[in-house]
Each structure stands twice: as structure tokens, then as C-alpha cells.
Amino acid sequence: MTVTVPGPTLGVVGGGQLGRMLTEAAAPLGVDVVVLDPTPDSPAAPVARDQVVGDFDDPAAFRELASRVDALTFEIELADSTLLEAVADEFDLSVNPDPATLSMIEDKLVQKRTLREAGVPVPPFRRVDDAADLRDALAEFGSVMLKARTGGYDGRGNVPVTDPADAEDAMEAVGGPAMAETFVDFARELSVIAVQGEAETRTFPAGENVHENEILRETILPARTDAGVLARAEEVARDVLETLSGRGVFGIELFETPDGDISVNEIAPRPHNSGHWTIEGAQTSQFEQHVRAVLGWPLGSTRLRCPTVMANVLGTVEESKSARLSNVEAVLRDEDASLHWYGKDEVRPLRKMGHVTLTGEDETDASDLLAHARETRDSLRFE
After folding, report:
1. How far is CA 267 from CA 6, 24, 62, 63, 136, in A?
2. What is the pLDDT of residues 103-133, one digit of tens each?
3. Are strands 32-37 and 50-53 parallel, antiparallel or unpaired?
4. Is 28 exposed, middle or buried (0-12, 13-18, 19+ CB in 10 A)?
5. Is the full-model pTM beyond 0.90?
6. How many CB atoms are closer than 10 A to CB 379?
């Protein structure tokens, strides 16, 4: 490898907080980033080389982006996989992960079928097209989580259903074809950030995730479970990678049952919220790993540096308004804390506005660090 000035330019479909952190990680490597996003002055725009303003299915915007970069990737599943493939062919660019992988993952039913056929453990599920199908699923599984097949994230498109009388309302809530998955009696939720490079695969240590109302609140490292479970989680994550094509980072969400069994909840073909801890807590962040991987460069170490907890800063407001975060000095004065502010100018109820990471010493208890992280995060207020 040879360092040049200017270096390569990476095109990223999506200019949200993930695009922002990708751009921040690319800069020290000498990599420029151009993002595509429909929102002018997106969160990534202040740190990227430039932004193409356009929708995630806009052919002209995709062609403009492709004409200005040396490689393509994406940070949001709403990116049009067919357009990605088309412009990559037209401009002779690599695009990673493979658009076929994006197409498979973005349909939750296809995703689960692919995993099941590959022998990867998944909870029982079935296709649901209407209320009658949902009632059949309830008869088979009992309580279910009804999931929109496409477009759902951060709890949107997910509806828990226990009563057949609620079938019509639940189908209306998800707004289209769906998948019903049996409720899993899990002891905890885990996630593994896995990386597929040019000729190597690496996994970060499994993190323990705390959700509320289907939205991630905190991720804890090391996860508070035994070594056998962690080894199994990594094994399953590597099996998942065998079903995916293309280079990059993948967020693999898992369930751990009380018996220590592991099954796959969902996959994200991009850096993931549950991997934000890697910026301070790992030798190489998930964002730097993604840049390295999609460019075909050697991957970095995934070693855990120290006990780490990431706590999301969510919109604690009842209605949307201009974003004004106060008491920031309380976080900045905490010698164990790092603040990440995403630069979104509007705060909405439960919108992800930033995160706080707390790091400890080797002997720090994970539960104590979690309590510290929550106290620090909760000291922030939206005016």
C-alpha cells in the first residue's frame, strides 16, 4: 500500500449519524468521504468532503455520487440495492457490502429464511400477509412479535401481539406484508459486530444490549454472561457471515436463552448502534473497520481495551422542537466519559441524538459502570 495525497474518496449512501462517524474515522486514514442524503446539511455534512442531496432511490443523485468517488458503501438499509449495483457497473466501482446482501437483509422474511436454510439458529417464524395469517401464527406460537418485512427500525414496524382480537389493528400498524416471530424467552440480548475483509474475518467481543420499547438504551462490555455463551455467540456470528457476500461491518443481534442457547434476531449490513462502544472501548472502531474493509485494506484489531458502556442520548421530549442540550459540562467534566453529539437540529420523542461512552479500569464491575453511564447520560436535558 502507498499513501497518496489526495487519497481515495469513499461514497456513502446515507448522511446520518453513522455516516458522520464513518467520515470521522476515514479522515485519519487519508480517506475523503462524499455522502448522499435527502436532508440538506445532514449530520455527516459538516465533516464530509461534500454532500449530494437526493433521495435513497434517486438515479440522478446516485450517478452524481458514483462519478465523484473511488468506491461505494451505504449506512442505511433504505439505499436502493438495484441502483447501487447499476451505478457501480456503469462507473466501474466496487460497492460493499454486496447489493445482493442488502436486498436479502432488508426483507426480514427473506433474511430469516436464508439463515434458517443455512443452519443458523433463528426463532420460529412464519409469513403473515393479513389478519387471518396472523391469527394462524398466534394459534401456532402463542404470543408473537409482528414485524414489517421492510422499512422497520428502532422499534418502528414491530408490534407485539397476544390476542387474536387485535390482529386487524396490528396488521394496520405495520402497514403491509409482515413476519410473525414467536416471542423468545431470553435471558439477555447480545450483539456481535463482525467484519468481513478482503481475505480475513474478525469479530468484536459480544456486547450486552439493554432495550426499552424496542429501542436500544445501553450496550455493556464485557457482557454479563459466561465464557461459553460468548464463544457460542461469536461462532454463530461467523456462521452468519458465511451467508453474506461483500466486505464491510455487520451488526448481528442475538438472543441468549436462560439455558445459554443463542439465536439470531436481526442483521444490519452496516455499522450498528450497539457497536458505538468500539470508538473508545476497542483497539479499532467499527467505523474504521468498515472503511478498511470496503476499500479492501487490512483489518484492525478488535481487542477490547477496557470495560466499556455506551448509553444512547434519546429525545426526552413530548413533541418535536429545536435541539438544545443542556448540562453538557457535567459529561465533559467526567474523566471517564466521552460525549458524541450527532448534530441533528431537531429533537423528536425518542430520536437518537447522541451517545455517551463510559470506560473503566480492568477491575471495574460492569454493573457499576452501567450505573455510572446511566447517571451521566441522564444528567443531560433537552430544553
Report:
1. 35, 24, 25, 28, 26
2. 999 999 999 999 999 999 999 999 999 999 9
3. parallel
4. exposed
5. yes
6. 16
